[in-house]
Amino acid sequence: MTPPSASRPPEDDEPRLDGRPFIEANSQERSRYGRFNLAIIGGTGVGKSSLVNAVFGRDFARVGKGLPVTSGVHYYQDEHLGIWDFEGFEIGSSTSPGEALRAHLSTIAARPRGEQIAVVWYCVNASADRLTQPDIDMIQELDAAGLPVILVLTKVQWIKHPISGRQRATPDTEEFRDWLESPVDADGNRIALPVKAVMLTAAYGPHGKGAGHGLGDLVTKTLELAPDSDKDAFRIVQRLNLPWKRAMARPVIAQASSAAAAAAAIPVPVADAAVLAPIQLAMMGRLAAIYDLEFKSMLSESALAQLSTQLTGQALARSLIKVVPGVGSVVNATVAAALTAAAGTAWLRLCEHLHTGKIDQSQISGAWRDYSPTVVDVVKKLVTQRAGRKSPGAQIHIAKVEAEA
């Protein structure tokens, strides 16, 4: 008599996994990074909100609850990003802009360490042709407080070269930028303007559509100026430089692959391949933190468990054994490492597409199936480990498996 389990698809034999390793690793990883605090100064209409949305994928209202710390200053925060928003200073007030700013900075200095300013974006509309004296006074106050200031020209009009296709600012804006980098007054006397860089930016493309310009350079300079303790938090919250996130993610996948290999140092039967699941789930939780994704808010507990089963179960190991000769009926260290690396790479791709908005978070329950690792993915990892990425024999073997799969 055929046992009941023999008549069911292999996937039905897989136990429902516990999602806690994912959640716990995600929480631990998120707690490591702290918060990056950015100060943005600029008058109403200069484009501060658009700039924040373009770089961080969120506007002030979505960063968190706005706390009116003092008149003219609001602090918006979420787990890894804090924004100090300085409103424009009124001309003709009894208190000069420099004095008012000094008072605001004193108030902020008394706040907790996790709220202290890392970098300042001082925003000026590119259509202006000179800085005002109040602007100069405030930048000098920021410098005196030991804060690195990036002077950001916003709403820059970019033009495309008709032959090379390269984008550049208009001649007037470039002339303004050149003056800012070495400012002099009407008499030719040098003006002390202690800024670390002058950056030309447009939050969006022409007519408010498409990608902006100059934002990648702004992000790179901001990271360069950030304290070492805040750099990873900035890498996490910014949305423009994906290679930074991949560089953080690769060691996580490598560590999990090594841990899986150690767990299978004594080969385990395919039926027991779920022993690798906690390692793989923890890896996924850590990767989700790097991409600033909170899956507990995206998925129900049952959906997270279903995802866990689909991405880390025994079905992939079974399929691998059927397709690849010589693997045997057990999962050894090499196979365990390859399975985990393939799962990590597939999960990274899903996280990246969620992070950049290519997949809407509301659609994740149906989307993850398109990102599950395949036998071909595992074989590529397996052959790469054994023969080297550029080995002709390795590439031939991968091609054969792709054809059979």
TrEMBL record:
SUPFAM superfamilies: P-loop containing nucleoside triphosphate hydrolases. It comes from the Bacteria. GO terms for molecular function: GTP binding. GO terms for cellular component: membrane. Residues 1-20 are annotated as: Disordered. It holds the Pfam family DUF697. Keywords: Membrane, Transmembrane, Transmembrane helix. It is a multi-pass membrane protein. Gene3D superfamilies: P-loop containing nucleotide triphosphate hydrolases. InterPro entries: DUF697, GTP-bd, P-loop_NTPase. Residues 38-155 form the G domain. It is found in: Membrane. This is Uncharacterized protein (DUF697 family). It comes from Rarobacter faecitabidus.
